[in-house]
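step=predict obj=DUF403 domain-containing protein n=316
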Amino acid sequence: MLGRTAASLFWMSRYQERAQNITRLMEVAYRGAIMAYDGQAEGHHWQFALACSGAETGYHEKHDELHSRHVTNYMVFSKDNPISIRNCLELTRNNARAVRTGITAELWEAINTTWIEFCDTSPQSVTQEKLPDFLAWLAQRSHLFRGALLNTVLRDDGYYFSQMGTFVERADNTARILDNQYWVLLPDNDIIEDGSSERYQWSAILRALSGRRSYRFAYPNAQLKAFNIAEFLILRREMPRSLAYCYDWLADTAEDLGQFYGSREPSLDLAADIFKDLKEKQMRDIYQEGLHEFLIDFIGKNNQFAHQLCEDYNFA
């Protein structure tokens, strides 16, 4: 496969995953804003979405205050925000169009229709009352993309590069959200009062990573606890957005890619090493190492894997 084809498939999936991640953060912010309790700073929930997405600096360069309307426009519709949902969907479509003959009709239809319908939506029409429905529509379109990819695409090198784009982005998103909020996940915070800001932030982290309900299944007899939440989102492989789950997929997919080409590139070993480290680690080891330090190290390793993959297969 040509390097530019591999790059388009990798970034097509990566940008679609990013759009879904931003959508989820906006859903959490909106939910928090309408359920805010006394004592929370005004705009706290929108600040959470900006900070966890890495868009905080860019937003404050354009706006002096936190306002739901400004945050929505910046995170969803802005052409000036590199990670806005609009830009992510456009880049998803551009990369898919570059390999139009290499993806299925169902996958192209899911991508193209999403972009067309998004462009037909006026930012002014998405009022705060209509925002939840619009975010739900965006989430459904992301699920349609993922379903079309998994159910119609041939399991060849193109599929493998696309999968890698998805899980590199997913792992990065999970690690950055956890690092942004790492201080509320330290064991010292396990004993807190109901209604505290820490308890809200625990719920917000789980919701931002689609883990609020599945946490209850994984820990059926336990209340929300910092230790359990951190373990759930880092080491539990049954959680689809945990770091361990992402690298379980990446290590397997790298192995499949190596077998497909009949060669073992450095990125394959790097993915295997990262997964092995996650599989063997205990949460207490991570706390002893330092949660923040562990997450920063993981983000660096994840970026290193992505760069090595690009180098091994001649794409950027």
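step=describe
The first helix runs from residue 3 to 34.
step=end
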